[in-house]
Amino acid sequence: AQKITQTQPGMFVQEKEAVTLDCTYDTSDPSYGLFWYKQPSSGEMIFLIYQGSYDQQNATEGRYSLNFQKARKSANLVISASQLGDSAMYFCAMRGPNQGAQKLVFGQGTRLTINP
Amino acid sequence: DAGVIQSPRHEVTEMGQEVTLRCKPISGHNSLFWYRQTMMRGLELLIYFNNNVPIDDSGMPEDRFSAKMPNASFSTLKIQPSEPRDSAVYFCASSLVLGILRTGSNTIYFGEGSWLTVV
Q1: Each residue's pLDDT tens digit, B67-115
Q2: pLDDT reported for residue A100
Q3: Is A47's CB within 8 Å of B109's CB?
Q4: How far apart are alpha carbons B54 and B51 in whole angstroms?
Q5: Could you say which residues of chain A have pLDDT below 70?
Q6: pLDDT value, residue A110
Q7: Interface test with A, best of B43, B58, B92 (most A CBs within 10 A)
């Protein structure tokens, strides 16, 4: 079974600093996808970034990058130059390769607070 | 382009009443998911459909919950009778899946959620 672990319930970071949110995963499938979502206080789930298990390079999307270490089964989200608007819950999620495993399995989330 | 549309956004109902949550997926998407979010249990998948067919409903809590997808552009999640422990945010999400995925790609996009309170 697939499992996602986020060990940081909460993080506090000064504005403009970089922040790393940890995510480890467990799966026996060689083929899978890893996702990060942001959930602000308004409640919606916003897709941030995706990393495929066969991707050779770490994914990047603007200020977001994913530090993918396959051997260690970790997929940490890095936010550069944090902004006050980055304060939110962040969820790491994993998805399997085939039709029977299309669902996303989520971690418990990390609440990030950016201080001015 | 319109995203996933859910209704109602907020609902307060009395215990024992029937609740129907509605979802319109992104046009062209062929997979639809219903998730529930609570403080205690986090985000849980209730059921998902592929090409309007339920594929995995193992997350549906009990017989009080039912979900349908009569066509590619509409799905409902019904709770009858509702109980206070059903209070949660219910998310609908959709994705386009073409055949067998190599790496589990094809992003799942979420609606804004339906905030349900059962008193």
Answers
A1: 999 999 999 999 999 999 999 999 999 988 765 555 555 788 999 999 9
A2: 52
A3: yes
A4: 8
A5: 97-101
A6: 97
A7: B43
> Which phi and psi angles does A16 have, rounded to 5°?
80, -10
Give the pLDDT score at A104.
Answer: 85
Contact between B4 and B109 (Cβ < 8 Å): yes
Tell me what pLDDT residue A96 has.
Answer: 72
In sequence order, the 6+-apart residues with CB closer than 8 A to the CB of B18 are B78, B79, B80, B81, B82
Q: Check residue A103 and give its pLDDT.
A: 77
* Burial (Cβ within 10 Å: 0-12, 13-18, ≥19) of residue B76: middle
Whether B107 has its CB under 8 Å from any CB of chain A: the answer is yes
Give yes or no for a contact between A52 and A110, defined as CB atoms under 8 angstroms apart: no
Tell how strand A24-26 and strand A104-106 pair up: unpaired
Of B48, B103, B107, which is closest to A53 when you measure between CB atoms? B103
3-state helix, strand, coil in chain A (%, to 5): 5, 50, 45
Q: Which residues in chain B have Cβ-Cβ distances shorter than 8 Å to A101? A: 104
| Residues A97 and B101: beta-carbon distance below 8 Å | yes
